[in-house]
Predict the 3D structure of the following.
Amino acid sequence: MDFNRYFKSRQGEMINLLKKIVAIESPTSDKKAVDVCSAFVVNEFKRTGAKLTRFPQRDIGDLHLIEYAPGGLKKEPEQILVLTHLDTVWPVGKIDKMPFYISGDKIFGPGALDMKAGVVMTVFALCTLHHLNIMPHKRIAIFVNSAEETGHEAAHALIKDLARKSTLVLCMEPALPGGALKLERKGRLVVRLEVRGKAAHAGTPEKGINAVEELVTQIGRLNKLRTGETTVNVGRIAGGEKANVVPEEAWAVLDIRFWKTADKERVRAHFRGMKPVLRGARVKAVIESLTPPMEKTKASSELFARAGEIASSLGLPLKGGKTGGGSDASIASSLGLPTLDGLGPDGEGLHAEHEHLLLPSFVERTALLTELLARL
């Protein structure tokens, strides 16, 4: 079956579905909006006869699992886990200023590249296997996350559970610009640094403990973490109420990125050993989210080589690279599973207003995904 030609003939349908999903805006923080988008997408998978499971959530959008195991497979087949997400960084209403449109071979729209196109690819790949009666070698489990952009423990726990039941993992995040898969990713640690001091009149500051001064000192000490390619970004900071009052409370939110698990442990050790400088001040570090690094492993390299062979049969060159951003693939990879990330389309502008994907890669990568699901 020439899937390149097949999906080329169906690219109009693919674009139409992508347009519909992009129009259903789904910022991570808006549970109602994400749930509406997820419900629409899950309904698309019903056409395959797959088993659909919803995991209701209180704080984030509901999580969904699509399990496809045709009757011809043995009762307990091995499993491929496909990771997708429908939440975006864009607020509801953004599409009015950043509409879905096509210019040449580029498709624009909020969340089109990251990663609603990857979701559309997964829908079409699975529906194609079903409608053409192509029997995959393994059960296919598709996880639809509602909080990938921020991370959430409930989603992470479910990914780990599904990964442990799988033999390999495919992640539909967009490719690196140029089309390379992501074989390495930085880990991410989001830390809220909280300081409590003692309020006093600014005219007698010795009677108080300045929480802002303590916080600034602790932030200055973060320079020791900036070694090698470990980065620390102070993304948010606040403290105090008035200029004539010694501030009692202050806080900051930090985004720390690292390539190796050893770097993650070094960072965590720093916060565990943190002590206040000002007498009487109290300092606390709260980990808001943690995504492990995706390190290059022998298992993933072997899977990449196999995928390269399949891509070559389609006339597609396949390269590998690395990126500083995190994804759910890192969670699965940290368990030792062979993992391929960046199987979504080529494009540029992640989290930017010029976000777009390239139409040719949208078609080609859907053909590749279908082959991977059928042959791996």
About this structure: The chain has a mean pLDDT of 95. Residues 112-131 form the longest helix (20 residues).
